[in-house]
Design a protein that fits this description.
By secondary structure, this protein is of the alpha+beta class. The protein contains three helices and six strands; from the N terminus they run H-H-E-E-H-E-E-E-E. The model has no long low-confidence stretch (mean pLDDT 93). It holds the Pfam family SnoaL_3.
Length: 148
Amino acid sequence: MNTATQLKNDHDQIHELLDTWVKGFLAKDVATVISTYAEDIIAFDAIAQLQFKGREAYRKHWQACMAMCPGKPTYEVREQHIDISGDLGLAHYLCYCGGTDANGQPQGCWMRVTQGFRKQAGRWLIVHEHFSMPFDMESGKAIFDAQP
């Protein structure tokens, strides 16, 4: 297989991995979301704690996140860019992450996402994930109404 064909295959596999992640998130299926991560994932999520080390720690966090959001989740990706070099890949994009609360009212905000990938035994997995949102330096408060 030539380099261009391999690179296209790798891009397709990472897109498929991210599609699996989104489908799991939208179905509130923690097992599917977690299946996209490497055992040694290091995650910097926008909520709860500074970092999560390992798939099991991140699984517990995702279970808590899903429990906090009783309604139907939403997830929209914009400006996605993926770079690959050998067995490492990097994606960054903006996402609208939200859902409906217990009263059916929509909630959510735009966030920034960076994900690092490693190809292990022929399969791409997320080894690093970082969700963040901008904040106002003067007030110290997150900017929940930021728009792309």
